[in-house]
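Take a record.
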Amino acid sequence: MENPKNHFWWKINKRGRLAYVILCFEEILIYYQEYHPAWSKIVEKMWSVTNSDFVDEPWYYEMRNYFPDEIIAYKDFTDALAEYNADGGNWYRLTEEDFLAAKQLYQGVEKRGHLKTITEGFHHVYDVFCEDMFSDSINTSPLTLKFIDKMEDLLIQNRIPLPSNQAALSFIRHQKNGFFFGSGLYGKPFDGQALSSYLNIGIM
């Protein structure tokens, strides 16, 4: 990547960057017409990172548990719990109901041939959150910029439109408040769901 200071998103704080890649992820779902209540629940959880005062562990663990490629690979809920517990952590955040709903959802996506692109986009959202997660010394979180680029490349390569809601994009581009550690590293909380193209599409 070129000098990160020249990147379009350099001055935008982490919560703003997350909002943008979530909008990109929604464009993937919209393009493939993946309209389902289970997706709405997951997207709502994604957007919760924008309005929470404490955005580290709860969102980090739950989104990690929702990875499509992992849920597809598990035989059942017991199998998922066993693997996470074997890793030495009591950090599985999904209920059995959540797991089964997601597995059924992802199996349908897989049959329709969209799982690879959706999974890759899901990972890019997560990576924007995780990079520089505990680095109060990296005030502008430069490592997250490469995942914004990867997300945009994913959409372009699959001929999926980039986000075009100008009101939402304008709001995000004004999220330039401080990057100090804690909630400030991510910027001040805001209602990300109000920016959502997917949740507000009117045909859910």
Summary: The mean pLDDT is 86. The radius of gyration is 17 Å. Residues 110 and 116 are 8 Å apart (CA to CA).
